[in-house]
Amino acid sequence: MKRSSIKIVEICLWIAVSLVIIILSLISGSKIPTAAAINDKLAHLAAYAVLGFLSFPAVQRLNLPGTENALFAGLWSFSYCIFIGGVLELLQQFTGRFPDIVDFTADAGGAFIGISFSWITLRIYQLYINGSIPGVSQKKRVKR
């Protein structure tokens, strides 16, 4: 797959997950299945971990100021996730649900976990591509 295709796929996945989280967060409280309500905090943590995981590479691809540095890309990603989580918590009061600081904390924790895991995954991949991982043989391309 070409780099431009990968960029489009990453950004589309990021947007799709963002939209799913927005829609699910704004569903009326009476329409939420009982099983989901029991594991509410875990659902917040998992959803924002996925959002954070996808945000990190997508933000790097958007070439925002400072995103060539992984720390700043992580901060941009975390800011995005926190903004979405905070706004959605505040908007829930208009859907028959109530804003909850513990939900927001779970959102932030999930975002941090997802961004951290994304950074680790990308770093290992970069080391592998560069042949810098000890004990891992790298197949060399044969010039034709």
Written account of the structure:
The chain is mostly helical and 144 residues long. It contains 5 helices and no strands. Helix 3 packs across helix 4. The two termini are 22 Å apart.
Q: In terms of per-residue confidence, which ranges show pLDDT below 50 for 5 or more consecutive residues?
A: none
**Percentage of residues in strands:** under 5%
Rounded mean pLDDT score: 85
Number of strands: 0
Give a short summary of the structure:
The chain has 144 residues and is an all-alpha fold. Helix content is 70%, strand content 0%.
Quick tags:
144 residues, mainly alpha, 70% helix, elongated
Helix-strand blueprint:
Blueprint: H1 3-25, H2 34-38, H3 40-61, H4 70-91, H5 101-129
Helix pairs in contact: 1-3, 3-4, 3-5, 4-5
